[in-house]
Amino acid sequence: MNIARSAASLLFVSAATTTATTTLLPKLPLSTAGRTAGLAFVNSFTTTSSIPSDPSSSRLCMMPSCEQKQTLLSCPTIPLRDGTSHPAIGFGTYKVGFIPSSASSAVSGTTDEPQRTAEECIRDALDVGYRFLECAEFYGNEVEVGKAIKASGVKREELFLCSKVWTTTIEKGEEAVRARLDKTLADLGTDYVDLYLIHWPVPGKHVEAYKTLEKLQQEGKIRNIGVSNYAVEDYKELLDEGITSKPTVNQIEINPFLYRKNTIDYFQSEGVILQSYRSLRDGKAMDHPTLSKIGAVHSKSPAQILGRWCVQHGFIYMPKSVKKERMVENGEVFDFELSKEEMEELDELTSPDAFSAFGALYRKCVNRDTTKDGTMEGVKMDVTID
Question: What is the pTM assigned to this prediction?
Answer without folding.
Answer: 0.83
